[in-house]
What we know:
Layout: H1 2-24, E1 26-31, H2 37-44, E2 53-57, E3 60-65, H3 67-80, E4 86-112, E5 115-119, E6 129-134, E7 140-163, E8 168-186, E9 189-212, E10 215-228, E11 234-239, E12 242-247, E13 252-267, E14 270-289
Antiparallel strand pairs: 1-3, 2-3, 4-5, 4-7, 4-14, 6-7, 8-9, 9-10, 10-11, 10-12, 13-14
Amino acid sequence: xxxRLFIVFFLILSCLSLNIQAEEMILEIIPLQxxxxxxxxxxxxxxxxxxxxxxxxxxxxxxxxTPDNLAEIKNILQSLDHSPRRLLITxxxxxxxxxxxxxxxxxxxxxxxxxxxxxxxxxHSDEGLVISGKDDKGNVIRYRTLDTTSGxxxxxxxxxxxxxxxxxxxxxxxxxPIQNRTAYVTPGGIVISDSTEYxxxxxxxxxLPRLNGNQVTLLVAPRLSRVNPGQAPVFDVQNVETTASGxxxxxxxxxxxxxxxxxxxxxxxxxxxxxxQEFRSVLIxxxxxx
Length: 290
């Protein structure tokens, strides 16, 4: 009998303890000044005491918890609910290089009796230095050499304002018309169809900045597209996707390419050589706007 009384007494004490804990829970509504409820709720929810709740509505937090836990949450909230820092983010993309080419060819015409020999310049050009001679029999010898040097220097920069912790995106470009011709075989013959398609040549970048004091961490994806001049458009595309970190106000190198090439072609009585190098670099800088 005494054992049964002890069990009943223990159950009564447990119920009273649960009631006391339930009575200790308080409900408070806290308005947010700068951050959104979606930003704050998922951070604070793991910190709420067992049995408590936290929700957000109309830029206000609705918290049900113990007084001590509520005081702790308020202290943490003070460090979270601040105005996000304004940033100016600049991405700089540079393309440079130099190409050198040399052409040499020997051509001429020689006739003697029934023998006739003729060699033509494969380039069929009068550009460069040409040295030629001709005798009274009409025999001709011609030497041509041409040296050319060309360079590439393309620099561009894109800037966009952003808030720390929030993504930003900027893009600019043009639609380039490309002429297409298609031939169809029909019972009535061949039908030629001409059409025009537009291709986007865009440049810009996507970035997500996060700050820790004067250190910035960036998830960034810059893109550079340009159209090389010519009868048939050639698209030059450069993409980078990476995470980088550095200090505010300093240029951070995201990546680059440095390559060289050498093409040597030899034919009968002619030769050509093309060599050069090209470099590309992508840098980013974040400045705080105060």
